[in-house]
Design a protein that fits this description.
12 helices; homodimer; alpha/beta; elongated; six-stranded parallel beta sheet; 434 Repressor (Amino-terminal Domain); DNA-binding; 3 domains; Rossmann fold; four-stranded parallel beta sheet
DNA sequence: AAATTAGTTGCAATCGATTGCGTTTTATTA
DNA sequence: TAATAAAACGCAATCGATTGCAACTAATTT
């Protein structure tokens, strides 16, 4: 069979140039100890022969795979896929590649994936927790073996971890306050699982805003959803609207369920935002499509991915002392649209 | 430093059990040539010590990375991210991992990524072409080196390649025919770059339906868009509606631009679907959100990912003769919603 | 009991790149 | 010119798992 590019190794180059493989390796890596002429000759031949270094061999020897593992709940969600897009961009820029796994929001899959990623010798992991994750000891598989982890978005409730996230408390506070400013007098909250810090924080941010403005905090209109799916959004909306004292505002912890709230309310002939103002979270593309357009909290997904990679690089390649940094908090912004704008 | 799990190798196990590393390796791989007692002892100790095989070493030796490379335009698009989700699921099932790269629809990035993926020794590549790709010779880097490629969705105009796709001609034909059945008398088409087979096929499918029903094929309302973005959707809609003979139907090659068409038309007070019927393509989630809801062509993204992995496995692991199969065509279906339903 | 067979296990090379250390060659200084 | 320093390069081990072949032990046959 014809000899193909992938068969070209440093040994082949070495032989053809009558130098040692060491020299070839050093020349290609711009090692200072190699003469200019040799260096050029090696590089020239490498190009000519279509030589491509074997990353597997290199990784094995150096014990660095230059691979970043990603673990998320589902790839096909607007926020997540944008996050991943940001990670891939930044990683490629830095010469890293990216292995993706999804947990489907299941803890056991999360654990399994962790094993696989570990066996793949990833250099670092960027992870957003599954909905079911409440304990974090399974991550020790990586940390015990000195593989850094950067948590993004759905982060654990732990100190001294590397993380990139938003201030969910503040974002929720502002979102709720916006509803209050628009004159809402009774504001419901559709939150996610309180096991997840992000949802807990949104909940407390919401409560804090109510308290600040002397609103009653009524647990009967504070819902804890399982997954904030479209279906659940319908169900929850129906539920709160059927209460004796239905809310005139909803702060929903994601856009998917918020859109369902809009659609349900509309189907019941309820005027939005005047009778019911609705605020989402994430600023997914659908916010601008649904009618009325959905107010939401802008969540810098792409940037979050980039920052996560930055953290990874700092830990992996930066000076020792830079590693103490244990968190980046990104800005959010309430985007006001028709679903809450009573102006 | 304390010895951590990742430091455990077959040599450590071998030493502790007073057997050779070969025996350990064979035992762990269930090689028939190893006695039952030894096999069990090895496995037991491996578990006890938290042994994890080093995939890099294994891959280097066997020349199989068990990694599937993915190359797509953008990860953060509904269709693509769902496709990837399907690939990841099926790949994990089969014991493969997945490396992701995005081309941002640029040919030069596509070429670069190909190099990187090649150097990573991927076992196979699943790719959807960038918008700019019209020649395919850069893929020879992989094929020359016997790395199989399965093309999905945006496939090259070539014979004898492995591919998973839909019948774009038929889908477009049916979509257009549906518009005709709804009484549209003048149907515009917003297509993508004709360099891409999928868009060319949708175009010819559209034309063919027109022809079958004795409609005039008017090039002035057959648009070739650059990227079918939301902005472009607006622009194109504005353009055709300002013509002397504006269309009363639009068949758009994606949903993003179709939604823009809806929004633009509505803003001009044009009744949908009665004055203007609009048909999209892909059946993205926004189809159900926009008002009126958007008719579209359902595109089995998840399944496409799974089938692509199936093809990969067939090529990589199946018997020689099964490899001749050079294409899977998946079913599409026109989903009728309010944007075209004049019933 | 000797001979044959089957069943287990070890030896050592291999995958391709990297790297500490030693050696050779060239340049510099006395 | 001899001695010293510097520059360039090679040797050989290494990363961890796999595998063809040989060797050894135990079981079976005659």
């Amino acid at each position: 069979m014809k000899k193909t590019n992938s068969d070209v190794t440093i040994y082949d180059l070495a032989e053809e140039l009558n130098v040692s493989p060491s020299t070839v390796s050093r020349a290609l890596n711009n090692n200072k100890g190699i003469g200019k002429k040799t260096k050029n000759a090696v590089k020239k031949l490498a190009k000519k022969r279509g030589y491509r270094p074997n990353k597997l061999a290199s990784s094995l020897r150096t014990n660095k795979s230059n691979t970043i593992g990603i673990m998320v709940s589902w790839i096909n969600r607007p926020f997540i896929s944008t996050l991943i897009s940001g990670i891939e961009n930044a990683a490629k820029e830095a010469g890293y590649q990216v292995i993706i796994t999804q947990t489907q929001d299941k803890l056991d899959i999360e654990i399994e994936n962790l094993q696989t990623l570990f066996e793949s010798r990833i250099s670092a992991l960027i992870v957003s927790l599954s909905m079911e994750t409440k304990k974090y000891n399974h991550f020790s598989l990586l940390t015990d073996n000195h593989i850094p982890i950067v948590y993004v978005d759905r982060i654990p409730a732990l100190k001294d971890i590397h993380k990139v996230h938003i201030d969910n408390f503040k974002a929720a506070f502002e979102a709720t306050e916006h509803l209050i400013e628009q004159g809402c007098e009774r504001i419901a909250h559709f939150g996610g699982s309180r096991l997840q810090l992000i949802y807990e924080d949104r909940r407390t941010g919401y409560i804090s805003a109510l308290t600040k403005h002397n609103y009653e905090v009524d647990e009967s209109i504070i819902m804890e959803a399982n997954n904030l799916s479209a279906e659940e959004g319908f169900r929850l909306t129906e539920f709160v609207l059927n209460l004796d004292h239905p809310p005139d505002g909803i702060f929903c912890a994601n856009d998917t369920a918020a859109v369902s709230a809009i659609r349900f309310a509309k189907s019941k002939g309820i005027a939005i935002p005047d009778e019911l103002a609705i605020m989402g979270f994430n600023n997914d593309p659908i916010c601008e499509i649904v009618e009325p357009q959905l107010s939401s909290v802008r969540h810098p997904a792409l940037q979050m991915g980039e920052k996560a990679v930055e953290q990874v690089l700092r830990i992996l390649e930066g000076p020792e002392e830079s590693v103490v940094s244990n968190g980046v908090t990104l800005d959010t912004r309430v985007i006001v649209r028709s679903s809450t704008d009573r102006g």
